């Protein structure tokens, strides 16, 4: 009986926010609370500038339309103190918090809600300082800084240092590192998350926690367990890595028949994961690749080598001559120039353009992901490439693993796709505004292609990468009453296992324990966030807050 009462109390608490959300006003108490705390950059629904504040950072136009749920307000904190106030005020007003750093969430989770709960967007765009300490090869990065801003600041401080993270400069370090963060240096230096040595988190109580304050389980969880689930990351302290004065880069497009393209991809599958750690060659396959200029199905190889061009050519001559060496034109450049080269910025862009937060070429897209543990047989690949040739809006990106990715233990961070994975697979379909009437058709096409690929990829469970978020894998339903009558003690945790174990494999239960420690009331939640245990099976530790002065003023943050 006592247990039942306790159980019900926990339930009440878990769902209190959802209930209160339904009854809440349109944000008046929230804005009053913010005003009292001195937070000035607040735009409420209906006020001038609301549309721009909400939409400018939206990357996937699929979630920018009139039908998307809209926040009561968009708040842009100007300091750590204001970030704390935003979290505290939103909670007091029973508004769900949507943290946004770069706005690149594939499923729009930084500015929409899954269940039409009243919510507020807390946008970290103004928290974008990067402080590099060349001596220790570290940097403090405010979570609102984009990867382009980070790369720019690192290279400006020292051309001999780099940061290992993704290639798109407008991606935010807040969401990116929270999901792992794979890029051109990852075969040499691991994920962005592998290179985080400290962090500052604002938790659901508004406390400011550094690594020792939050404890090792939570520090583990925030480096790959997915954004928006643990608290607001205010800043990351990252380890920088040495790079040579010159690196080598090339992009080459190889059109052909489905069979000839498949043969090249097959060779790539047998070679790229085993190249030296300094080498990275990814493969893009599709019938509408920009480099192919309308010539039909093709593969584009993007190559990067931490060393001179003649060395890169020597390695390719021995290992991958099929790529075609005579017109490869590998170019030597500084690391930061290679970042611009692979950034997707328009031809002629310069290093300073990396600091532009706004992505100018946006579109509508849907993505899904997989991992490959062995190469496909050639006839299977031919069939896959043949299917791709039928839908020029779709393409596949193969990212080479191996190297350092193969040597890091799968339990080191929540991101588990390490040893034994030869490459990642990302399936994408993109369309423009005037084609949006065919949205369902495009998305269904991608799902059918994904079904076809199921036989050839990692299974049991079929794996996925949380930064390529895919709501097809399942979503939380915080207001599912049927779960309340259920005899299972933790129905949310069991439901979320369906996608949680695909993103995190054996790390899922440790993430649930970390969530229960840091956010037992589930204040930070979204469609695929890790749920807390209702009846904690672990002793809840009480994280120790540190005074914000130490961070903004002392040696910790102000290096
Ligand atoms: C064009 C493009 C290129 C990409 N390239 C790569 C790549 O090369 N490698 C790779 O690994 N991934 C890549 N991604 C995926 C990218 O890493 C994820 O979409 C990432 O989550 C985006 O982070 P963000 O801050 O820009 O997004 P947001 O939409 O702002 O946030 C994503 C999630 O994190 C949460 N979040 C945001 N800020 C914080 C914070 N400060 N504290 C806590 N939670 C927060 C949000 O609430 C949301 O749930 C790419 C995405 C796009 C659109
Ligand atoms: C609010 O923040 C946004 C994003 O940083 C900025 O563009 C805008 O100028 C700010 N508005 C005010 C009034 O400070
Ligand atoms: C692309 O194709 C068009 C004709 O279809 C041609 O005029 C143009 O020169 C091509 N561009 C490049 C870069 O090859
Ligand atoms: C969530 O659960 C409720 C109650 O069972 C149900 O009515 C609703 O349709 C569910 N929502 C979603 C998105 O599945
Ligand atoms: C913060 O800076 C002020 C002025 O520089 C100094 O007096 C104070 O001791 C510092 N506080 C901490 C915690 O370092």
Give structural notes.
It is built from 19 helices and 18 strands. With 559 residues, the protein is α+β, with helices and mostly antiparallel strands. Among the domains are: 122 residues, Uridine Diphospho-n-acetylenolpyruvylglucosamine Reductase, domain 2 (2-Layer Sandwich), CATH 3.30.43; 204 residues, Vanillyl-alcohol Oxidase, Chain A, domain 3, CATH 3.40.462.20. The chain has a 7-stranded antiparallel beta sheet with strand order 15-12-14-13-17-18-16. Strands 5-6-10-8-9 form a 5-stranded antiparallel beta sheet. The protein starts with a helix and ends in a 7-residue tail after the last helix. 50% of the residues are buried. The N terminus and C terminus are likely disordered. One 2-acetamido-2-deoxy-beta-D-glucopyranose (NAG) binds next to loops. Flavin-adenine dinucleotide binds next to strand 3, helix 6 and strand 10. It holds the Pfam family FAD_binding_4. Its cofactor is FAD. One of its GO terms (molecular function) is FAD binding. It comes from Panicum virgatum (Blackwell switchgrass).
